[in-house]
Amino acid sequence: MKKLLLLFVIISLAACGGSKKAVKSDKFTIESLQDKNYQQVISMYSDSNPENGTGVMEEGTKERPYTVLYPGSKNEILITWKDAPKTSIFDINYSEDGKWSSATGIKIGTTYDELTKINGKEVKFYGFGWDYSGAVDWNGGKLEDSNIRVFLNPEGEIADKFYGDRIINATPEEIEALNLKVSTIMYRD
């Protein structure tokens, strides 16, 4: 009987430990921020040392208030707001390989092949060397209607044909040679 009780206690403790880990990881998904106002964000991330300001966004066409959580760290994340009172998030983005990820499983460093697998269909991408360099087109896949936007960065050599504001047509061998990885993740409402 004592062995059975001990086994029950061990299983119960293991189950509790697993749920704590899941809650912790959910805190650092960008989707956990959606539909939050400034006060709610600061309450959720009280240790984030937030920096606030106003900047010109959207290719220099719109001035928006912003908040940077965990500035200067690998967990830095930028939130831009729709309004000055910061009641509604416009977008969220980050480019560091810290704790943040998307609930879809995408994180900084996710490879092109992994991204295609998550999407359930081959992704397309825009050329490099401009404001939206490496932007991904979900190509009708699972993430097509999501609010997640990602940008790829090549770790391999970039031939001239891969530059410019257009969707790139590349062979599987060319894509492999580029060694594309997610470099920025954005959530846009």
Explain what the structure shows.
By secondary structure, the chain is of the alpha+beta class. The chain has 2 domains: 30-94, no CATH class; 112-188, no CATH class. The protein is 25% helix and 24% strand. It has helices spanning 2-27, 38-44, 112-119, 172-178, and strands at residues 51-57, 62-69, 77-81, 89-94, 124-125, 136-137, 148-154, 180-188. Strands 1-2-3-4-8-7 form a 6-stranded antiparallel β-sheet. Mean pLDDT is 87; it is low at 1-24.
Summarize this entry quickly.
This protein is an alpha+beta fold.
**Helix share, percent:** 25-40%
What is the succession of H and E elements?
HHEEEEHEEEHE
Q: Give the CA-based shape.
A: globular
Q: By helix and strand content, what is the structural category?
A: alpha+beta
Number of domains: 2
Query: What is the first-to-last residue Cα distance?
Result: 56 Å
Rounded average pLDDT: 87
Please name the defining characteristics of this protein:
single chain, 189 residues, alpha+beta, 2 domains, 6-stranded antiparallel β-sheet, two-stranded antiparallel ribbon, 4 helices, 25% helix, disordered N terminus
How are the SSEs placed, and which strands pair?
Elements: H1 2-27, H2 38-44, E1 51-57, E2 62-69, E3 77-81, E4 89-94, H3 112-119, E5 124-125, E6 136-137, E7 148-154, H4 172-178, E8 180-188
Antiparallel strand pairs: 1-2, 2-3, 3-4, 4-8, 5-6, 7-8
